[in-house]
Amino acid sequence: MRRFSLVLFVITILSGPGALAARVPVQDPVPVKKHSNIPNFHVTQIEKLLGKKLSFFQKTQLKILRKKLQKSSGIQDPTDKQIKQGRLSALMGGTGLAFLVIGVLTGLGLLALLAILLAIFAIILGARSRKGNKNHAGLFGIITGSITLGLLLLSALLILAFSGVFF
Description:
Radius of gyration: 31 Å
């Protein structure tokens, strides 16, 4: 018995891991050409295709996968115009934030007013540059423009609060 186990072990080692797998033909249960619209299938259609019922967790995973596939399929590379808009948006957002800080610290109201315009244009251009793609410069412009407008609103409220208008 011991000898048989040893011989079987040696044959298994010498034959390699792919020896048995090479002999068994592998067939794709769902050919891609025939069913290329799988992400749009309903749960019942997939159950018919597989020939068995899906559990609750499998149905949930299928819905999550379908949403991820729909999100990833709509994303494209940004065009040259969108890249330029994203860079301009980031530049305007950063400059608007800097103008706001300098304007508030030095008391120059003109720079704060210019910061408002730059922030609004940064948000608009950032939104245009991010349509249908992941333009990170456009996102940076949207974020810095929003921060600029938020800080401007906060500083305006603080100025009004400490000037005695509310009391």
